[in-house]
């Protein structure tokens, strides 16, 4: 009996969003548009340098998979998240935020000492997001943080590619996938970031296994994963790794492959102010759709609309009532 729509696993990060100029990114030596792992000292250095900048979104629980899982729950789905936080203010805030979003999780008892992960999200005037992440205790997420009963009860697992940077996180992702396969739970993955594809390709392949049921990526990640440089070639290459997939194309829409046919989704015209969380929202909305009676084309339309909506405001998530209004449009 599959009582959970989507079971997620990923890094638990508390997000802080700040507006910044391109010139400041260059001065600070930050590569634009990607996620860079930093130590706590470097992150504190950046926060100190930017302490007079405008914080554009309130503190929020984040992490790629968690953003998607919270979207599933906000649309009305049943969701579970495995993560690891510390016994500190951010850790307790993070778990409370998951609960408030309607997401079940792997417990609050005996939280370990340490520092909960933090992500500094820098937003430039073109709406591009650049992330500097201190993983903290989330870097040590491991197999014991999995809930095997929840995995077996889920229709899909959803794993973020960022886990590949942590040896224990990668092991947990592989074990999660194996448990899902044994339980007849479908597997969904996100490639997460072009840097993950470039530097951790083999590790991502280990996490995905022989073939994913569903794979999410953007165009750059698809090109890097398949070793191609045209969209048509990337689509054909992706078929070797996944039974179905979605490739997001930013302002150009998205491509969905449902296992038989390829569907091109037209973009929703909006004025973007913050692209943080766009891919996460796309995946969460899509997963909600296919686990709640929608076909791939309907789910793709919902995902495209939801991701276009989230970039029109600061922060990676939408108010719950806004999810309902999006559903009413499909």
In brief:
With 330 residues, the protein is of the alpha/beta class.
Task: Describe the 3D structure.
With 330 residues, this protein is an alpha/beta fold. The chain has a single domain (4-327), classed as Ribokinase (UDP-N-acetylmuramoyl-L-alanine:D-glutamate ligase, 3-Layer(aba) Sandwich), CATH 3.40.1190.20. Helix content is 39%, strand content 24%. It contains 13 helices and 14 strands. The strands form two sheets. It has a nine-stranded mixed β-sheet, with helices on both faces. The radius of gyration is 18 Å and the shape is globular. The two termini are 28 Å apart. 52% of the residues are buried.
Q: What is the CATH superfamily classification?
A: Ribokinase
Spans of at least 5 consecutive residues with low confidence: none
**Which architecture name does CATH use?**
3-Layer(aba) Sandwich
The share of residues in helices is 25-40%
Give the total of beta strands. 14
Which class in CATH terms? Alpha Beta
How much of the residues is beta strand, in percent? 15-25%
> What is the global morphology?
globular
Strand arrangement, largest sheet? 6-5-1-9-10-11-12-13-14
Write down the CATH topology.
UDP-N-acetylmuramoyl-L-alanine:D-glutamate ligase
Topology:
Elements: E1 4-9, E2 13-19, H1 22-28, E3 35-37, H2 40-49, E4 55-62, H3 64-74, E5 79-82, H4 89-100, E6 103-105, E7 117-123, E8 129-134, H5 148-153, E9 154-160, H6 167-183, E10 186-190, H7 194-199, H8 201-208, E11 212-218, H9 219-226, H10 231-238, E12 242-248, E13 254-257, E14 262-265, H11 278-290, H12 296-310, H13 320-327
Parallel strand pairs: 1-5, 1-9, 2-7, 3-8, 5-6, 9-10, 10-11, 11-12
Antiparallel strand pairs: 2-4, 7-8, 12-13, 13-14
